[in-house]
Amino acid sequence: MPETPSDVRVVEAGPYGHRVIDHDWPHEARACRNVQKTLTTHVNTVDDLPPVRWLGGVDIGFEDGGNTTRAAAVVLNAQTLEVVDTALARVPTRMPYIPGLLSFREIPGALAALEQLATLPDLILVDGHGIAHPRRLGVATHLGLVTGLPTIGVAKKRLTGSHAEVPDKRGAWVELTDRGETIGAVLRSRVGVKPIFISPGHRIGLASALSFTMSALTRYRLPETTRVADKLASNR
DNA sequence: GCGACAG
DNA sequence: ATCTTGTCGC
């Protein structure tokens, strides 16, 4: 069984009825990295999803020069991409942005926004990486662990890993690898734009992560889930 | 020591 | 992420 120090706890019935990993929220970088190392043992990158009817999106913005975190959570009809629910939450920012520790800065706000949703998403596309992270614990993976919900990381820039050139054709993708592991995919979401980085968050594999992401793409570089959440989080 | 570095 | 207008191009 995985090691679970006192500051990391396994909870069989979390906020949404699923098994979740609860833990304290340190403010110091060293402690955050230690929590990440323990959390890694609980990540599931094998498909374990319900039928996806409601597709969620989460994105975070900031105000007051960063002192206030503005989090947006949205739910779209997975079939029609119609927006069925939205929520906006403002919470005081607790941590600065530190590469590799983004989740400790953004998740508190994300949780506050998710709590306000009337419709619980079956799968959430998060703005940021999933396991495509130095310790395999990007914001999407971390959010999946603490909510118990399936998540996918959709990032606009690379954090770690390397990859071949991506053909300039919509839907083309190449593997993103790091230290001998496949940690995600680099996807050309539309011709003529910079590719996006897709990686499993929690309770999903790379193939399905790519499939669901592509199902939410229309004519833009980013999937509708993150586009809708993004405008909510940035527009005052 | 040097370079890299999600949002 | 955020500070910020117009502008080049399909």
TrEMBL record:
The record marks 97 as: Interaction with target DNA. This is Endonuclease V. GO terms for biological process: DNA repair. Its EC number is 3.1.21.7. GO terms for molecular function: deoxyribonuclease V activity; magnesium ion binding; RNA endonuclease activity producing 5'-phosphomonoesters, hydrolytic mechanism; single-stranded RNA binding. GO terms for cellular component: cytoplasm. DNA repair enzyme involved in the repair of deaminated bases. Selectively cleaves double-stranded DNA at the second phosphodiester bond 3' to a deoxyinosine leaving behind the intact lesion on the nicked DNA. It comes from the Bacteria. It is found in: Cytoplasm. Keywords: Cytoplasm, DNA damage, DNA repair, Endonuclease, Hydrolase, Magnesium, Metal-binding, Nuclease.
